[in-house]
Design brief:
The complex is a heterotrimer.
Chain A (H helix, E strand, L loop, with lengths): L1 E6 L1 H6 L6 E5 L6 H7 L10 E3 L2 E3 L10 E4 L7
Parallel strand pairs in A: 1-5
Antiparallel strand pairs in A: 1-2, 3-4, 3-5
Chain B lengths: L6 E6 L4 E6 L2 H7 L3 H11 L13 E4 L14 E6 L6 E6 L3 H7 L4 E5 L6 E6 L2 E6 L8 H12 L4 E4 L2 H4 L7 E3 L3 E3 L4 H7 L2 E7 L9 H17 L1 H9 L4 H7 L21 H7 L1 E5 L9 E8 L2 E6 L3 H9 L6 H14 L3 H16 L5 H4 L9 H13 L3 H5 L2 H9 L1 H4 L4 E2 L2 E2 L9 H9 L12 H7 L8 H17 L4 H4 L5 H12 L5 H22 L13 H4 L14 H15 L9 H6 L3 H9 L5
Parallel strand pairs in B: 1-6, 7-12
Antiparallel strand pairs in B: 1-2, 3-4, 3-6, 4-5, 7-8, 9-10, 9-12, 10-11, 13-14, 14-15, 16-17
Helix pairs in contact in B: 1-2, 2-24, 7-23, 11-12, 11-13, 12-15, 19-21, 19-26, 21-24, 21-26
Chain C lengths: L3 H10 L3 H8 L7 H11 L9 E5 L1 H4 L2 E5 L5 H5 L5 E4 L2 E4 L9 H5 L22 H5 L4 H8 L7
Antiparallel strand pairs in C: 1-2, 3-4
Helix pairs in contact in C: 2-8
Classes of the chains: A alpha+beta, B alpha+beta, C alpha+beta.
Chain lengths: 77, 617, 153
């Protein structure tokens, strides 16, 4: 299955290999964490994930065609 | 002068004298506003060796050119003085609505010197400035004082107050404003209290002139449009800064049990989501801010129900996980206790956690605590200690002087677990696994605070064990982030929601009519950074590298558990970080600004003064 | 006029207090409405020169009040100088006729007419719509939407 990841600009500035939008091909039963690993992001690099205007948990199973917006972690106020 | 009200208000409480003086072109050009004004006046007017509690100390309450205007969150007031916590320059900023109100009243900064004979408050109502009696307010809580003054004067007054802790000179007493916003750090509330100044109330009706009102509308419209379209905005509106807690825990940065750990096994009880579900009753914003990160909460404990703004992340980290409390409602209740007493929640959390660990280790006993069972996880103990600190009773009198002083009294074993730099307690990011963040805490000009440079994401991106090359990011942040405190604008819309810095660079000329580029502004910020460092060097003959050193715990104990279990940082690493940092800054190996550096930044007078004192070569 | 469709409906309604009360609970007290009002109507940054006020009820009720004219028209008849009129659904003060006597201010059931030392007449909402478009919570927008069905054309 394929999911679409959308990366916030601040993340693209830190991780130059990221595009604004990237597709990840995953096995059935894969989680949001697997999707981020496929995009080559280290643990802790992301903050909150949104999908369909709601929070997406990192260990949540994702489905084919799902779009996940990846926000950067906080920046210490 | 575009972007400014054009006046400084001087208040001498010793002889009840107030006077206005015009803002000078030189001051505005070199120091911008806010923290820059604070650094300038505190360096210039507080003589070396001055008692922070004495009449010679000056409290500078300063707005900035972006404050009070139609742009995202021009809400920041900087409050500066010689800090009783550190003995060097200190400042703290507060959001809310004070910064704009000062300008509407025709002033950019208030400089308070001297000491009033009796408890007083300062009333600024446009051109009318009065020092009024505050006998009826003395002893009241910080929030209660604001409520009483609002009833007396009217809701249009913006008010800053202190609680009992400020009156009693607790070194981490804060200044409260707008119900639940604080200038928390560096004991600015204690400086206010030492001057017998219980509150400052401001109301103004004037317009703030800007150079190009249409230009302001255009840039501002772009900024607001980008903010509103950002998917993260809703998350911030929903959860505020509380969303940080679980993230900090997941990357091994959440201070836990007096920074022994950086991972809290019971973090779910403190999460932003749980907070929203269980205790939040409303959202609250600072001036002109769409994020509204302030969360109004109701919390109950032992039959008492309180309304409080918060807890935000720092409070949750330092009072929650660091004292091992069990639920966000408990943290909110402790937050209320601190706010009303007028205690900085960051330092209070540190002081109590330090006490709890010393109690656990047997360094102190119930004989020392006055019978308090000072165990991790006890909200009762937290509240009892907080009240004793604010009243300076028993153990509270020692703890009121901060962890560094308490550790001097309790001996060597406690010294290495007293978590501070320069006497200021560490804020909410445990940094054994984040070397650049560690360096940021070590070199922050006011002590162990995160707001000058926050670089944990840099450590994650570049490698958490990488040491070399990390200092550059810290220096970069130490210039750009405090620039926001000079401009009188909140930085969250940039750092958290990603508004590009170019927008702020475009705002500067349309507001002020000045042609400085963003790079020019960063040089001014670097000048201010060196000036606050110079204050410390002038103040203490032996000031230097040892004052940029973290507590022993961080390089003697590896992380015990959590995602970074086994991780550590060595003394050699710390020295490498400092060597690189001093080199980049143009400071000598002992961390003192070189004459050529001060001269490059237009601080020739400072260079001459320090050279003549023999403080720099 | 920008925003006229929305605000025509307010004039017809003759009262919007229900909608306001509900949405006021979501006000965060940022006062963007006040500052944008002064910029839009006076070309100045000054929330005191504004036809809307946010009043803190934090200490007792953990909320804010939004005070703004609902164009009910009660001030029109009390004006001794016939300076206030209903102009396309907008209650409007004519600065030429107004003597700043303050009678309308006392008569306003909402307390939504404001004075300023530099302005020779009470300041009130002109229904320019700027605050509604900027409000981060869409409170003033929600208010408009709730009465949209009332618009005849």
């Amino acid at each position: 299955m394929r999911v679409t990841l959308r990366f916030a600009r601040a993340l693209q500035e830190i991780y130059e290999h990221l595009d604004e939008e990237m597709e990840a091909t995953l096995e059935e039963g894969a989680t949001a964490r697997d999707a981020l690993a496929a995009a080559n992001l280290p643990e802790g690099a992301w903050g909150i994930l949104l999908t369909d205007d709601r929070l997406c948990k990192i260990d949540e199973k994702v489905s084919d065609g799902q779009v996940i917006t990846v926000l950067p972690p906080i920046s210490g106020g | 002068m575009y972007g400014y009200a054009g006046n400084i208000l001087r208040v001498d409480l010793s002889c009840s004298k107030v006077s206005h003086e015009p803002l000078t072109e030189e001051l505005v050009h070199n120091y911008i506003g806010g923290r820059g004004f604070g650094a300038y006046y505190v360096y210039k007017e507080v003589p070396p060796g001055a008692d922070p509690y004495g009449p010679a100390n000056k409290l500078v309450i300063a707005s900035g050119p972006f404050a009070g205007l139609l742009l995202p969150s021009g809400s920041k007031t900087s409050i500066s003085a010689k800090s009783p916590a550190t003995g060097i320059y200190g400042d703290s900023n507060v959001g809310g609505h004070l910064a704009g109100e000062l300008k509407y009243a025709g002033i950019d900064a208030v400089i308070v010197g001297g000491k009033a004979e009796a408890p007083s408050y300062l009333l600024i109502d446009d051109d009318k400035v009065e020092i009024r009696g505050a006998g009826h307010l003395w002893g009241l809580g910080a929030i209660k004082t604001e409520e009483v003054l609002k009833e007396e004067l009217g809701d249009e007054f913006q008010i800053a107050t202190i609680g009992p802790a400020g009156e009693k000179g607790v070194v981490f007493a804060c200044i409260n404003h707008d119900f639940g916003r604080q200038a928390g750090r560096c004991g600015m509330g204690a400086v206010m209290g030492s001057k017998n100044l219980k509150a400052v109330a401001v109301r103004g009706t004037r317009s703030v002139p800007v150079a190009d009102i249409d230009g302001l509308k255009d840039v501002s419209a772009v900024m607001f449009r980008e903010l509103m379209a950002n998917p993260a905005l809703k998350v911030w509106q929903d959860l505020g800064l509380a969303q940080v807690t679980t993230w900090a825990n997941s990357i091994g940065a959440l201070p836990t049990r007096n920074f022994r750990q950086n991972f809290y096994e019971a973090v779910n009880g403190l999460s932003g989501e749980l907070m929203k579900e269980t205790i939040v009753v409303g959202d609250k914003a600072c001036f002109a801010c769409p994020m509204a990160t302030g969360k109004l909460c109701k919390a109950s404990f032992r039959g008492k129900t309180v309304l409080v703004e918060g807890p935000e992340y720092e409070t949750t980290a330092l009072i929650g996980s660091n004292c091992a409390l069990g639920s966000i409602e408990e943290v909110a209740f402790a937050n209320y206790v601190c706010d009303e007493l007028g205690l900085d929640t960051i330092s209070a959390g540190n002081v109590v956690a330090f006490t709890m660990e010393c109690f656990e280790k047997g360094i102190i006993t119930k004989d020392d605590t006055g019978g308090i069972e000072a165990k991790f996880g006890s909200l009762d103990a937290f509240c009892e200690l907080a009240h004793k600190i604010a009243a300076r009773e028993g153990i509270g009198d020692l703890l009121a002087q901060g962890v560094a002083t308490a550790a001097e009294a309790w001996g060597e074993e406690s010294r290495r677990i007293a978590i501070h730099v320069k006497g200021l307690e560490w804020s909410g990011y445990e940094s054994r696994g984040a070397p650049s963040m560690m360096l940021a805490y070590m070199t922050c000009d006011i002590g162990a605070h995160h707001n000058r440079a926050w670089s944990v994401t840099h450590d994650i991106a570049v490698g958490r064990d990488v040491i070399k090359g990390k200092a550059a990011k810290v220096v970069e942040f130490q210039h750009v982030r405090p620039l926001f405190d000079c401009l009188g604008v909140c930085r969250l819309q940039w750092v958290e929601l990603g508004l590009p810095l170019e927008h702020y660079a475009r705002l500067y000329p349309v507001v002020t009519g000045r042609d400085d580029s963003w790079e020019d502004l960063l040089v001014k910020s670097e000048r201010i950074w060196n000036l606050t460092r110079a204050f410390a060097v002038r103040e203490r003959e032996d000031f230097g590298r040892k004052d940029d050193w973290p507590p022993g715990r961080f390089y003697e104990e590896p992380v015990p558990d959590g995602p970074l279990a086994g991780f550590g940082i060595t003394e050699q690493d710390l020295n490498t970080l400092l060597d690189e940092y001093y080199e980049l800054r143009g400071w000598d190996v002992n961390g003192r600004p070189k004459e050529e550096t001060l001269t490059r930044l237009g601080l020739e007078d400072v260079a001459t003064e320090l050279r003549e004192m023999g403080r720099i070569l | 006029m920008r925003g006229s469709r929305i605000f025509d409906s307010l004039g017809r309604q003759g009262g919007i207090s229900m909608g306001m009360d509900i949405d006021m609970l979501r006000c965060t007290g940022c006062k963007l409405c006040q500052i944008v009002c002064s910029v839009a109507n006076f070309g100045e940054n000054n929330p005191k020169k504004s036809g809307i006020r946010i009043v803190s009820r934090l200490f007792t009720e953990a909320r804010y009040d939004v005070i703004v004219c609902d164009h009910c028209g009660e001030c029109i008849d009390v004006c001794p100088f016939a300076a206030i009129s209903l102009d396309s659904g907008v209650v409007t003060i004519d600065p030429e006729l107004c003597t700043n006597c303050g009678i309308c201010i006392d008569a306003c059931p909402k307390g939504a007419l404001f004075t300023h030392p530099e302005v020779g007449h009470p300041i009130k909402c002109t229904l320019c719509g700027e605050c509604e478009r900027l409000c981060p919570r869409g409170i003033l927008g929600a208010l408009a939407a709730s009465t949209e069905g009332e618009v005849a054309d």
